[in-house]
Amino acid sequence: MTKDKEFEKKNFENLNDICEECKQEDKSVFQNLILTGFKICKSCRISKTIFPI
Questions:
Q1: What percent of the chain has pLDDT over 90?
Q2: pTM, whole model, 2 decimals?
Q3: Is 44 exposed, middle or buried (0-12, 13-18, 19+ CB in 10 A)?
Q4: Which ranges constitute the DSSP H helices of 1-53?
Q5: What is the DSSP code (8-state) at residue 22?
Q6: What does the DSSP assignment read for 28-39?
């Protein structure tokens, strides 16, 4: 049972609100992680939609 708790604790540490593109903290990062599977903020998501390269 302690291994399960340690595993969950490590997974929750990775769920911070820091964008992987611009490295800024934003609360929309977690929302986009749930919606798209990527840890990007709202502004980076919009820029990737407009300029997909």
A1: 53
A2: 0.67
A3: buried
A4: 2-13, 28-36, 42-50
A5: T
A6: HHHHHHHHHSS-
